[in-house]
Amino acid sequence: MLINRDTNATGKRICGATVALIAALALAGCAKSQLTTGSISRDTGAPVANMSSQQLASQADSLGKAYTRNPKDMNVAMSYASVLQMNGRTDQSLAVMRKLAIDYPRERQVLAAYGKALASAGELEPALDAVRRAQTPEYPDWKLVSAEAAILDQLGKSAEARALYRRALDMKPGEPSILSNLGMSHVLEGDLKTAETYMRQASEAPGADSRVRQNLALVVGLQGRFQEAEQIATRELSPEQAQANVAYLRSMLAQQNAWSQLRDEETNTN
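Given the sequence above, the corresponding structure tokens read:
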């Protein structure tokens, strides 16, 4: 499809706001939608991904004590790093994973998690290396293929990234997380309409989780359709959390002087 050049340029200018928004969502109370670990809280029996901020802080404290007793316990260290990440303690999370990668230099899941921690900290080239080392050519993992593509996207290599997303979709057809990542690839280029198409496919696919639907809300909001974005977000979060996220999105667009441009461009294309 043809992309409006002005819209594309505006989209690129607001990419910084998009990244900042994703970080802010954790502070607004939905960090649980950012990373789904599947790990189980020993205290509550609930998945870490479903915990409130207060529960995450308590879990970080509990796992921190267990980690201190035995930092080479792979499962504890990975859970601890994940909870730290969800609490916004990116540097500390990376430090835990860096040490674990030294202790387990050939462990596939450790390398994969280390790569994601590096990417979250903005260390993209080392992240790419770690994810590629975690991959096994004779038995490739679609999650690692998608993770590698996401890192390439952040490095500005969108063509390579999308080729890998398609490869991942060949391996796992209809996987919502891949479709969502592919949508975010188009966000990074400012093609918000195409991004929304992929996000909607992702949100309607079996197995779509909160992260996928929050990404859809984000893309809808970036196009200035705040009421619709709020409705999507409200399905996943409490009304207070949803309002906070949409309010932050509005403020980020205003800071980037992008809201009026998006509104005018939408008017001109209708």
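The chain has a mean pLDDT of 77. Try to locate this feature in the token string yourself.
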